[in-house]
Design brief:
By secondary structure, the protein is α+β, with helices and mostly antiparallel strands. Helix content is 22%, strand content 36%.
Length: 433
Amino acid sequence: MHASDLQTYLENHETKPLLRFITCGSVDDGKSTLIGRLLYDSKRLFDDQLATLEADSLRHGTQNEKLDFALLVDGLAAEREQGITIDVAYRFFDTEAAKFIVADCPGHEQYTRNMATGASTAQLAVVLIDARKGVLTQTRRHSYICSLLGLEHVVLAVNKMDLVDFDRPTFQRIVADYRFLADQLGIDRVTEIPLSGLDGDNVTERSHNTPWYKGPTLLGALESAAVEQRAVPEGPFRLPVQWVCRPNQNFRGFAGELLGGPIAVGDGIVALPSGRRSTVASLHVGLDSVEQVAAGQAVVVALEDEIDVSRGDVLAAVAGPPEVADQFGAHLLWMDTEPLKVGRNYWIQTGANLIGGRVSEIKHQIDVNTQDELAARELPLNAVARVDLELDRDIPFELYAHSRQLGSFVMIDRQSNATVGAGVIDFALRRAQ
């Protein structure tokens, strides 16, 4: 490859839209197999990967003489031995039209916390349903968590259609059942696709086995969603400060990843939670000084005035800055085998902030299958609840519906430093005084 060809390739790759998505659903619905098939059919595997797949299929495979595509994704030894997914497996691949980062999430109920981790960074969910089984309990649980974490677009992949002879009424019944669930959960968009991950029907190419289906292939639906994601407008800039940069006595800057934007030299900013104002004096990306920075870039911002800004503070546009509060209504997913106790002190990590805090009240636990509200004094593993959260000091925040970065939090055990819970901010209970 000539240098000019390489440069052209890199430029094209850089400008492709990026989509982060997850695959979820009940155990044995074929999530890992589908992702493996997608990687295989998109011709993004190297020769050594294909050779390893062939060897592993003979050693660990579950498809007799066929390639076991799940082995491309299931990386842990325990996963291969048990034939299930335990951890979240991330894979990158690209096509001529888009780039993708896929998180293959476990289906077993005891690994729901792993699934929530994968969903927290996703923009779209591919929900798999076994055509023989229909909508199951774990399908409902995963769909609820997707809706809780703000995923408004679901690709409903009705898998293993080959095992029901590509029966159209079976597909239509499952779609109707899932759309009823999606309406209950507030999931606005559902793109339904009949497919077979094992044989590749409607994965990257249309299948002759479903002449009655006129919609997109799975890959086509993902590429369209990637283009749509790039068109989403950015809001006013916010810079959660991750590091105060002071290489010498003549320079003091604030480093972080820009949310929203753009930001430019001369823009007015407000530092939160203090409320002090200043103006952007200079912007630095890597070793270069620049006049403007777009959303998603890592940047160091220097200000005209020597105002007090620390790690965890937020520099925001003067027009429409985030709110500041120390008590919140939130939804919480409990991830620890030790139940949550009301009033027990934890570390609360939100953005770059690490603050003492506690759940002051459990309003109700939520049955993720029926969405019924249940009384609860403590929360067991994998429980979801509406809680009141109390922090030791005020923080800048936004509702999770508006900003994932400033509207989410994790809870950390003070003794073990284990992550024991994750949640989203619904509203402030009161502004900090």
